[in-house]
Amino acid sequence: MAAAETFVFNIAQKVLEKSGSLAFQEARLIWGAESDLGRFEKTLSTVKAVLLDAEEQQVHNQELTVWLGQLKEVFYDAQDVLDEFECEALRRQVVEMQGSTTRKVSRFFSSSNPLVFRTKMTHKVKEIRARLDEVAAGRAKFHLSPRSDDRHVVRGKEMSYSFVQASDVIGRDQDKEKIVKHLMDPSDGQSISVVPVVGIGGLGKTALAKLVFNDERE
Asked: Are 87 and 206 within 8 A, CB to CB?
């Protein structure tokens, strides 16, 4: 199947890759999300097994197309939740390495209350898991068959680092420059503690945040 025909499958694979990384495994233990994320991954893996068949059959089944669209939205929101965990892990890493009083840290990161963050993320993970369970339950009526594709292999657990090669991130130079300029010279003359980076899952928000942090300008 062509890449365009396995779009939802590819998103599911990326979510599983991110949640299975070594860095994220550590984060989920720290923030107490092990149980719900484990159930989420189990359901996601089960759904992913039939996505190749679903994406092929949707050409002749509009209801199946709608179901895939619902899954896609859940996957995108799941990516956003995982990105929040990754950004918080990066914040903690920076504070430990450079200290929370350095100029760059105080500019780029807001203070984080561990209890508040844990409560907020626990709620978000439970919500995402419940949504996936609800949508996934609908697969039974389509009588989909599990399929494997040698071209789609989930890589082993990977480390996540704050460093990212600028050459590996395409089309975000202007976005990075805007954020750096805003941090260095805020229009209202006040010190900025945090700049939110928002958008649908898969847009590269975490990569953009890493690019800004690794910028050498003080």
From this structure: yes
Among candidate residues 42, 124, 141, the one with its CA nearest the CA of residue 80: 124
Which positions ≥6 away from 44 have C-beta within 8 Å?
12, 15, 16, 78, 132
Residue 73's pLDDT is what? 95
Number of other CB atoms surrounding residue 141 within 10 Å: 10
**In angstroms, rounded to a whole number, what is the distance separating the alpha carbons of residues 78 and 31?**
16
**C-beta of residue 121 within 8 angstroms of C-beta of residue 84:** yes
Contact 77, 128 (CB under 8 A): yes
Burial class for 195, CB neighbours closer than 10 Å (0-12, 13-18, 19+): middle
Q: What pLDDT digit, counting tens, does each position of 165-203 carry?
A: 444 444 557 776 777 676 666 555 555 445 556 555 555
Token digits for 195? Answer: 């700049």
Note the pTM of the prediction, 2 decimals: 0.65
